[in-house]
Amino acid sequence: MKKKSRVAETKVLVEQIVNGLQEKKGRKIISLDLRKIDNAVSDYFVIASGDSNTQVAALAGSVEEMVQKELNDKPWHVEGTSNAEWVLMDYVSVVVHIFQREPREHYNIEGLWADAIVKEYEDMA
Prior knowledge:
This protein is α+β, with helices and mostly antiparallel strands. It has helices spanning 6-23, 53-71, 101-107, 109-112; strands spanning 27-33, 44-50, 77-79, 86-90, 94-100, 117-120. The protein has a six-stranded mixed sheet. Helix 1 (6-23) packs across helix 2 (53-71). It is globular, with a radius of gyration of 14 Å. The mean pLDDT is 93.
């Protein structure tokens, strides 16, 4: 039996992360494809916003649950859950950033990685 390629596995991971974010009504969800950028820290960033620390925490929990359920994978590292203004979830090939609106605007991750290929996802109302 042939193993899936690392690229295919990473794309499936991004899909499941986005599903977890949409499940809890994450807003302004995007993925940044960093694979063609020299010195990028991962293959993809997935970025989303929540309206409160409660929603940001729920989004992070949903991502972790969805990825665990569908792919039997866990994040290598998670930080920011104590105040839930910016939660970072590191799946090594994919790093998830879940922000409240103001910190997202302030840190402007999208602007820092402006050379990345951006994909926007539909907000689930």
